[in-house]
Automatic annotation (TrEMBL):
Coiled-coil residue spans: none
Listed name of the protein: Chemotaxis protein CheW
Database matches in Pfam families: CheW (PF01584)
Domain of life, per lineage: Bacteria
Amino acid sequence: MPGSGIDWDAARARLARLAALTEAEGALSPDEARAVLDARAHALSRASTAEAAPGTLREVVHFRTAGQRYTLESRFVLEVIRAPEVVPLPGAPPALRGLTLLHGEVLPVVELAPLFGRAPPDTTGPLLVIGAGRPELGLRTEEVEEVTLLRGRTLLPPPATVDTSLVSAAEEDGTLVLEGEALLGDSRLVFDLSDEGAV
């Protein structure tokens, strides 16, 4: 992003310090790793006992940011980072909040609010690592609420005031149903960091 005014040298230095800190902390012990995997498996299996007609249900992750609730199909959510360390990028576009390291790889951290004409929240919470088979973006949230089954027959058309290229429907309580493919393909969330020599 030429001319953006981002201090890439400072960002690379911060990411290098973050990588060193991550290595110093070490990986999870086998017992801790097993506990994390068991918790994930339990969360994903909770909805499997629900009665469902074929083709009418989708498993979704509910989360909240900037005062709005959203759902995103769980197949796009690869990981949840509870306390992410994000390196801010002054001069970056509003949707790009910074960079973080995920398993040694640099991941752009993005904010939904600017895509819907809202100011980003001051508070931060867990980071949803989203992608189609591989990590592509870290999505900032204020809270990740639950994994549930979404019944298509109970959905409403999206409000006329939102970007319908990203939102396919709304729940009765006003929760917006995000389209994963559209979100990952949105040009406002595609950042070629290699052009700037980023790590």
